[in-house]
Design a protein that fits this description.
CATH topology of the largest domain: Heat Shock Protein 90
Oligomer: single chain
Shape: elongated
Distance between the termini: 116 Å
Number of domains: 4
Strand order of the largest sheet: 2-1-5-4-3
Radius of gyration: 37 Å
CATH superfamily of the largest domain: Histidine kinase-like ATPase, C-terminal domain
Helix content: 40-55%
CATH architecture of the largest domain: 2-Layer Sandwich
Number of helices: 17
Structural class: alpha/beta
CATH class of the largest domain: Alpha Beta
Largest sheet: 5 strands, antiparallel
Length: about 525
């Protein structure tokens, strides 16, 4: 390579110097225009030079930064860590690390640091490129939360399919039990003790039906029978069964406020909530002596408080009735607390009840919220928030005593379960009706065509194989637009009302129904034929 020709005049020297200075200024402007911080440190970690982005990210001027070391603004670096860093730099020409930088005002932010080592004229240099990754981490956190919500939705959807199948079969079995018990109690004079035993059996069967409804609530697909509820009175009534649900070494204490405002709620679902929470508290205490405190109060909640709740779907500021379940158990750390409402999460080797996932589903249906307070070794408190409505209402089925009304005429009973047909026929006959049966939609249509002039009412199961209740109803309406039809459904799908839109039905009865409930439906249907 030929040597550069000598500069022989002052003009040429001045021109070359100006060009060099211009090139240096452009280089410095380019470095300052970079969107990430650029640092050059000496071998002791002292700042040698920085660009504008580095100054802006840390809140220091360039002069201030040149008086600092990396230890002043990167709290993750220690002297020992710096020596390890230098040793790694000697082995690798380039590497990256994640760290945290501290601003002049004391706040911190996550960074990603890329370090490059190079030589210039036999002298070693190292430069660090620092990127603020706060936004990226926030985006990753949002994506993770979205993925968790999607996974939870998929789990709940799977549970809905499972719960629907279980509810259908379980309700059919309970229908046979409840129907026969009701008929026995209504028709046979039995001794007092036997009568009490039958009543207890009927009560247990209805509680089992309530449990079946919780399977649907567990997946967010249940239906509710809403009525005005005094939570204080409900808890007093349930106190004894709650107490025996806990370990014998645990004392249940009640602190219930008087004159609580009423809320709109499904009583059976609320009982399940309190039962699950007491069982959960008992498991947290174990076999050691302990205390579970059940208390009620009212409070006015603003939006900020409601936003801090662990379950906060559709919560609106206003007056709430609060129920607290506090235990002296083992408590939870934050990682466990965040997962307790997951349908598939448990800290126990064996679980009882439907768990906190059911509590979540029920509270969501009641537009309520939950706050959980817990520390390891200091117990746990669940605070349940129930909104106080402006207007109380009820969706309960009106009751009619079986001793005050009797029907007459022929009823077509359609169900794909033989046992249900059998008990259904007996119930209808007890109410004064004659019964024809069909075990499928197609058979129902054949029977209806043959006995069209006799049949006054059709009782139609909604869930059947091949031709379901919806299609059977449509075909029946083509044959007779006026015949009263009672729809019977085991789990009342959410879209049932929409699917029935425009199709006149006399009543909808939910399985497993008792004698009074089918009587009320039959009376409504009979009124249509008058």
């Amino acid at each position: 390579m030929s040597p550069l020709p000598p500069i022989t005049d002052v003009g040429s020297l001045a021109s070359a110097s100006a060009e060099i200075l211009r090139s240096l200024r452009i280089t410095q402007e380019s470095v300052d225009a970079a969107p990430i911080g650029i640092f050059r440190l000496d071998c002791e970690g002292r700042v040698v030079s920085v660009n504008a982005a580095a100054c802006q990210s840390l809140g220091y001027s360039e002069e201030e930064l040149k008086t600092l070391t990396v230890f002043d603004f990167d709290p993750s670096f220690t002297r020992e860590g710096w020596r390890e860093h230098r040793a790694k730099m000697n082995r690798l020409p380039a590497y990256s690390l994640s760290s945290t930088h501290r601003r002049k005002n004391g706040t911190t932010f996550p960074v990603e640091v890329s370090i490059r080592r190079f030589f210039f004229e036999d002298e070693e240099f190292a430069v660090s490129f620092v990127k603020d990754i706060s936004e990226r981490l926030r985006a990753e956190d949002e994506r993770r939360k979205l993925e968790e919500r999607m996974l939870r939705a998929q789990k709940l959807e799977s549970l809905g399919v499972l719960a629907g199948g279980i509810a259908h079969d379980f309700n059919n079995l309970l229908m046979v039990i409840i129907g026969n018990l009701d008929l026995t109690l209504a028709r046979k004079p039995v001794e007092a003790n036997e009568h009490l035993m039958l009543q207890d059996a009927a009560k247990a069967a209805r509680q089992a039906a309530d449990l079946c409804r919780q399977l649907l609530t567990y997946a967010g697909k249940g239906t509710s029978r809403t009525e005005p509820v005094d939570l204080g009175a409900l808890l007093r009534d349930q106190a004894q069964i709650l107490e025996v649900s806990a370990s014998r070494s645990i004392r249940l204490m009640l602190s219930l406020a008087d004159n609580l405002p009423r809320i709109n709620a499904d009583v059976s679902q609320l009982r399940q909530v309190f039962m699950n929470l007491i069982i959960n508290a008992s498991d947290a205490i174990g076999q050691a002596p302990g205390v579970i405190t059940l208390s009620t109060s009212t409070m006015t909640c603003d939006r900020e408080y409601l936003e801090s709740a662990d379950i906060k779907d559709r919560l609106e500021p206003g007056l709430y009735v609060c129920v607290e379940v506090a235990d002296t158990g083992c408590g939870m750390d934050e990682s466990v607390r965040r997962r307790i409402f997951d349908p598939f999460f448990s800290t126990k080797t064996s679980s009882r009840g439907l768990g906190l996932a059911a509590v979540r589903g029920i509270l969501s249906k009641h537009r309520g919220g939950i706050r959980v307070y817990s520390e390891p070794g200091k117990g746990t408190t669940f605070r349940l928030l129930f909104p106080v409505p402006d207007v109380l209402h009820t969706e309960s089925t009106p009751g009619v005593s079986a001793t005050k009304w009797q029907g007459s005429g022929v009823v077509l009973l359609v169900d794909d379960e033989a046992l249900l047909l059998s008990v259904g026929v007996r119930m209808l006959r007890h109410l004064g009706f004659e019964a024809l049966t069909a075990s499928s939609g197609l058979q129902a249509l054949d029977v209806f065509k043959k006995h069209r002039e006799e049949i006054r009412i059709v009782v139609l199961d909604w869930t059947m194989p091949k031709m379901d209740g919806a299609e059977t109803l449509a075909q029946l309406r083509r044959l007779d637009a006026a015949v009263p039809v009672i729809i019977v459904s085991g789990h009342a799908p959410d879209d049932l009302q929409r699917r029935l839109s425009g199709r006149r039905v006399a009543a909808i009865v939910r399985k497993p129904y008792n004698l009074d409930e089918i009587l009320a439906a039959m009376q409504m249907a009979s009124d249509e034929t008058v």
